[in-house]
Specification:
Pfam families: ADH_N, ADH_zinc_N. There is one protein chain. The protein is an alpha/beta fold. The chain folds into two domains: 178 residues, Quinone Oxidoreductase, Chain A, domain 1 (Alpha-Beta Complex); 139 residues, NAD(P)-binding Rossmann-like Domain (Rossmann fold), CATH 3.40.50.720. It is built from ten helices and 18 strands. Helix 4 links the parallel strand 11 and strand 12. Helix 3 packs across helix 4 and helix 6 packs parallel to helix 7.
């Protein structure tokens, strides 16, 4: 079968590899991936990896490079192991890609995403979503209803990252919010903040294409270019008594963005790190203290959030499909996928790969 595999920095190939063979284990599910998103983590691997992909066998999964990519995907169930009861052949599913022990310290508490042994389908697992077939655990598949399309099912994973940040910030009906950065996660965070009931949403984004998309996603959002506007002053002008926003969501993973959020949030407000920082950041800890703020860090998402997001999508509350700007074939994954998304002036937001 054909599969998109990461071999090394700037080395992604469409390879012919053996399809899953042999009898399924009791809790295995054989799937046919349908659509798979290119994630920021995939881009980091392409530009600077290997980072989270395994050069030596992963301590829990045993996977190692070359790695079949893809952890944001929808699929069809083809076969199931003898102990699988949550899905059957023919079901359409969304993949929850985190794999980890069920019985370690975090697993016993249901905090599977925090396990020190955690692996991820498409990054540190023998299979990934950019292939014609894959084998996953029964806990990795969530059956979606007819009210959720294949595109939407593929978008649940990044939507989970965004919603977790909004949850951690305590965004609720009437909240005032700053979203700093409108990449795919920032755009989904914008949608999640509106779904949570935020009444005033300010968006900071330097890319004009992404500012336009943000305005289309939430027409009443206040969208600014941080290169042209002092974001903290703009926030003061648009919040009660100029105190700042209740919650600032940092979706870029850059020092300047994090510090802008700290300046924009009100006293006793919350700053949430949603974007992953790839290098240490210098911060004004005294400002944090003077403002008595809460700084929330997030890693992945609780794996139990899939039904909630699927329900929000089916009800029209979380239109995650609106950030998808292109769908491509595997043969175009580098030129029209990775390289396109790395163009800082590009108009594309989320690109999906037709897996099969």
């Amino acid at each position: 079968m054909r599969a998109v595999r990461f071999h090394d920095k700037r080395d992604i190939r469409v390879d012919d590899v053996p399809a899953p063979q042999g009898r399924l284990k009791e809790t295995d599910v054989l799937i046919r991936p349908i659509l798979c998103g290119i994630c920021g983590t995939d881009l980091h691997e392409y530009v600077a990896g290997p980072i989270v992909t395994a050069t030596e066998p992963h301590l829990y999964t045993g996977a190692k490079l070359p790695q079949i990519l893809g952890h944001e995907f929808s699929a069809e169930v083809l076969d199931i192991g003898s102990a699988v009861s949550n899905v059957k052949a023919g079901d359409r599913v969304s993949i929850q890609p985190l794999v980890s022990p069920r019985d370690d310290y975090y697993g016993r508490r249901g905090l599977y995403h925090l396990s020190e042994k955690m692996g991820c389908i498409g990054l540190s697992w023998d299979w990934g979503g950019m292939a014609e077939r894959a084998v996953v655990n029964s806990y990795n598949v969530f059956k979606v209803s007819d009210g959720v399309s294949d595109v939407q099912a593929a978008m649940i994973e990044p939507a989970a990252v965004a919603l977790y940040g909004v949850d951690r910030g305590g965004v609720q009906a009437g909240s005032t919010v700053l979203v700093s950065g409108v990449g795919p996660i920032g755009a989904l965070t914008l949608l999640a903040a509106r779904a949570a009931g935020a009444s005033v949403i300010i968006v900071s984004e330097p890319n004009p294409h992404r500012r336009d998309l943000a305005q289309r996603l939430v027409p009443d959002a206040l969208v600014v270019d941080p290169r042209a506007v002092d974001v903290a002053e703009f926030v003061k002008d648009h919040t009660e008594e100029g105190v700042g926003v209740d919650v600032a969501l940092e979706c870029v993973g850059l020092e300047a963005s994090l510090n802008a959020c700290a300046k924009a949030v009100r006293r006793r407000g919350s700053v949430v790190q949603v974007g992953l920082h790839m290098r240490p950041a210098s911060v004004d800890a005294m400002l944090w203290a003077l403002k008595d703020i809460t700084v929330e860090a997030t890693w992945c998402y609780p794996t139990t959030v899939w039904p909630r997001i699927a329900g929000m999508i089916a009800a029209g509350l979380y239109p995650v499909e609106k950030i998808v700007t292109a769908t491509i074939d595997p043969d175009d994954v580098v030129a029209k996928g990775f390289e396109t998304l790395l163009d800082p002036s590009g108009a594309n937001m989320k690109i999906l790969v037709r897996a099969s």
